[in-house]
Amino acid sequence: MAEVVYDHFHVIKLVNDAIDDIRRSVQNDLDKENAKYLKGKRYLPLRNQEDLNNAEKTELAELLVVSEELHAAWRIKELLRGIYELADDPDEARDMLTAWADICLSSASPELEKLGRTVQRHLDGICAYWSCGRISNAAMEGFNNKVRHMIAQAYGFHDYEYMKLKIYELPSMVLRKQLLRSCA
């Protein structure tokens, strides 16, 4: 029987979407000067903490002082990312995610409450990530993008069998390009 697995990328994306919604609502409530400052920093709270350089970390700290709600949402995102790094098995992940969802539900933010309910509703599929060996569909999504790109380059295919042959040939074409780049 097949098991539904929610890719961790999509779970983190839900949190990032909530942070962006919170940023927008906070921005609408601020005076013009602070709103403009917040608008120019849209992507900063969405980035992974370890990917920030020292100047960006300082900028993020200044940004999070502007709004306690935005700061709380950012901390919740980092907590979720920590769960994906620290949990070793589905049971541990379930316990951590349940506690995380409870934090979201106890917040005053409707965006975070909605996020907490969503995670509670899909907890089995999210925890399946650990029970299935931390599986991700990134490789399949990447291959599907390559197929879409190939079809777009050809302006579509009229012969279905020829298109299937081109799709079967696609992995060898990608490998050939990678080998050529490494030799150059």
Any low-confidence stretches, pLDDT <50, length ≥5? Answer: none
Query: Which structural class best describes the helix and strand composition?
Result: mainly alpha
Number of helices: 9
Mean pLDDT: 88
Content of β-strand: under 5%
Distance between the termini: 46 Å
Order of helices and strands: HHHHHHHHH
Percentage of residues assigned to helices: over 70%
**Major sheet: size, sense and barrel closure?**
none
Shape: globular
Number of DSSP strands?
Answer: 0
Description:
The chain has 184 residues and is mostly helical. It is built from 9 helices and no strands. It has helices spanning 8-29, 32-39, 54-66, 68-86, 90-105, 110-121, 123-131, 138-153, 160-183. α1 (8-29) runs antiparallel to α2 (32-39). The longest helix has 24 residues, at 160-183. The termini are far apart.
In short:
With 184 residues, the chain is mainly alpha-helical.
Keywords, please?
184 residues; 9 helices; 76% helix
Secondary structure elements and pairings:
Elements (H helix, E strand, L loop, with lengths): L7 H22 L2 H8 L14 H13 L1 H19 L3 H16 L4 H12 L1 H9 L6 H16 L6 H24 L1
Helix pairs in contact: 1-2, 1-4, 1-6, 3-4, 4-5, 5-6, 5-7, 8-9
